[in-house]
């Protein structure tokens, strides 16, 4: 949910599109998110909010936790609508969906995923949109990989990609979905953190940065 202080475009940018793609391709995203959460400063700490934006986020986060118990609880109930009680079980696919895929695909049914704008995005250039796609079915699946080594690596390290890249081992369905959603001429970067490093473990998700 956006507030008057949540839009990152109200704050100065901290890096360029080229900086962003370098961070993602080098794998710094995973480390940066952890270090940022722990407030540890390092040369890898590039992907972050503007300090004033971070302060506004921290205040908002405290209010949400006080009202809902946790960020995942708020997300599942209020933003995704996938939990209809005070419980927070991992979301499961609705049984009424026919021909449910084993994993996230280009043509994933609407009931199995939701695309949300990152209300508290990082200090990306103002012409870059930050989206998060939330999925009720696996994003990483062995059938998507040409080798077990690639599959195991994705489980441990996540995955990333760019819409102008041909290196799609494991990410082809995600990339095809992005192109279908945003257009074939879209310039975008995306990444998926490994489960044990995700801030919201209850729902699988990946980040998308779209350059306009």
Automatic annotation (TrEMBL):
Pfam families: DUF3605. One of its GO terms (cellular component) is cytoplasm. It comes from the Eukaryota. One of its GO terms (biological process) is N-acetylglucosamine metabolic process. PANTHER family: N-ACETYLGLUCOSAMINE-INDUCED PROTEIN 1. This is Uncharacterized protein.
């Amino acid at each position: 949910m956006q507030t008057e202080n949540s839009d990152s475009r109200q704050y100065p940018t901290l890096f360029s599109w080229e900086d962003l793609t370098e961070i993602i391709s080098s794998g710094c995203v995973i480390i940066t998110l952890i270090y940022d959460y722990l407030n540890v400063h390092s040369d890898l700490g590039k992907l972050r909010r503007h300090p004033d934006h971070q302060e506004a986020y921290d205040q908002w986060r405290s209010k949400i936790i006080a009202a809902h118990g946790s960020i995942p609880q708020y997300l599942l109930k209020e933003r995704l609508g996938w939990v209809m009680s005070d419980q927070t079980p991992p979301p499961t696919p609705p049984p009424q969906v026919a021909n449910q895929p084993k994993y996230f695909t280009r043509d994933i049914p609407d009931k199995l995923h939701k695309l949300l704008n990152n209300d508290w995005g990082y200090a990306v250039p103002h012409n870059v949109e930050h989206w998060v796609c939330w999925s009720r079915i696996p994003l990483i699946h062995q059938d998507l990989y040409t080798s077990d080594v690639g599959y195991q690596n994705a489980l441990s390290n996540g995955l990333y990609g760019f819409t102008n890249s041909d290196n799609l081992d494991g990410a082809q369905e995600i990339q095809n979905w992005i192109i279908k959603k945003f257009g074939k001429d879209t310039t975008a970067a995306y990444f998926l953190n490994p489960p044990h490093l995700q801030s919201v473990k209850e729902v699988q998700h990946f980040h998308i940065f779209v350059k306009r």
